[in-house]
Design a protein that fits this description.
Elements: E1 13-16, E2 24-27, E3 30-31, E4 35-41, E5 44-49, E6 54-64, E7 67-72, H1 84-89, E8 98-102, E9 115-121, E10 126-136, E11 143-147, E12 159-160
Antiparallel strand pairs: 1-2, 1-8, 2-3, 3-4, 4-5, 5-6, 6-7, 7-8, 9-10, 10-11, 11-12
């Protein structure tokens, strides 16, 4: 069978993902840790893992030239359940969202200046009081995130990143 699915050229390269011991390589129609793209519809990609002999849907979003985020279905070896539509329909709205960050890239200036408030969630409710803050730093390519703990939200904590 002939496939013509390729990822955008700008995604080519090595990427870091928390929990992955080795860099993830994206090139042409392949993601090194997932497999080879066989079909796509906009941001939805049908990936074949030839090692595990299964297919999965990966919904990929470019959040920034240096950041890709994705959700994925389980890897199905059932021939009746290997279409792009059926596997992508299997991804719930609350499925894990994975982030990949490009290795060896040049710094990009922060698009905003000053200090802003934000809320966050660790899966046990929104932590919005007291508000957490984000500040642009003296190094124009970095941000300082100050997370505040919320007394009524399990898993919230005070820390800076």
């Amino acid at each position: 069978m002939f496939y013509t699915c390729v990822f955008p050229k700008r995604w080519s390269g090595s990427w870091f993902q928390k929990g992955s011991p080795d860099p993830i390589r994206v090139y042409n129609g392949t993601i090194s840790t997932k497999g080879t793209c066989r079909e796509n519809d906009r941001d939805k990609f049908l990936i074949e893992n030839t090692m595990e002999k299964c297919f999965r849907c990966v919904v990929l979003h470019e959040k920034h030239i240096n950041v890709l985020q994705y959700k994925e279905s389980h890897c199905s070896s059932d021939p009746q359940y290997q279409s792009l539509d059926s596997l992508c329909a299997d991804i719930n709205g609350d499925a894990l969202l994975y982030s990949m960050f490009r290795f060896n890239t040049s710094a990009v200036p922060c698009p905003f200046k000053g200090s802003f408030a934000f809320s966050y969630s660790r899966g046990h409710g929104d932590c919005d009081n007291p508000p957490s803050t984000v500040d642009s730093c003296t190094d124009d390519s970095r941000l300082l995130l100050r997370f505040q703990a919320c007394a009524d939200v399990l898993g919230s904590e005070s820390r800076s990143e």
